[in-house]
Amino acid sequence: MRLFVNVDHVATVREARRSVEPDPVEAAVLAKAGGADGITVHLREDRRHIQDHDLERLLEIARGGVNLEVAAEEDVLTIAERLRPAQVTLVPEKREEITTEGGLDLGGRGLDRVGAAVARLRAAGIRTSLFVDPVREVIEVCAELQADAVELHTGEYSNANDSARETQLIRLTHCAELAAKLGLAVHAGHGLTYENVGPVAAIEVCEELNIGHSIVSRAIFAGMVRAVEEMRIAVDTARVER
Prior knowledge:
Elements: E1 2-6, H1 8-16, H2 24-33, E2 38-42, H3 52-61, E3 66-70, H4 74-83, E4 87-90, H5 109-123, E5 127-132, H6 136-144, E6 149-153, H7 155-159, H8 162-181, E7 185-189, H9 197-201, E8 206-211, H10 213-222, H11 224-241
Parallel strand pairs: 1-2, 1-8, 2-3, 3-4, 4-5, 5-6, 6-7, 7-8
């Protein structure tokens, strides 16, 4: 299983002081040293954390690829087309939210916008993933749009109490299996921690996890290399024991 480490929150700390440190690109280098397969960053329209120059530097040095998260909006899509990261994940975005609150809206105008964005990215030769809630009908729409992958939103699983978590895990598993059956690569992420990652990592058809906040939080106390190493162990152990 691939482990992509999201370094957005390193930039969040930097932007709190409009300073030059901590550097998310340096964090990415250390994450790779700890066993990360790739790096994820979200280039938001309001540039609240990752900046254009961060992305440009990251693409120059990040072996294993960069997963660029963007909204289906002209400004950031144009940047993606120009810089051509290994993968773009289309995500919903609200200015007032603290973090991404749910999957893409694939109904009505939302479907039109996302469909047009997928077509643009495919034309540019960029692998495209859609960040979506684990809902059967939504997965089917993703396949119809000819996305390369889906990233299943694990927020409800991560936030569930013990009694409800198993239900959410079953939901994730069924949608992952459907996505794979429809020819979509299966990724997962949002709210995953050292404590809850195991069952999601054990989903057989899931091939990539995107994890940020928990790793960056651990890195404050243990350092980035060790924090990633510990998550790498948690993920790999779950895969072996499944």
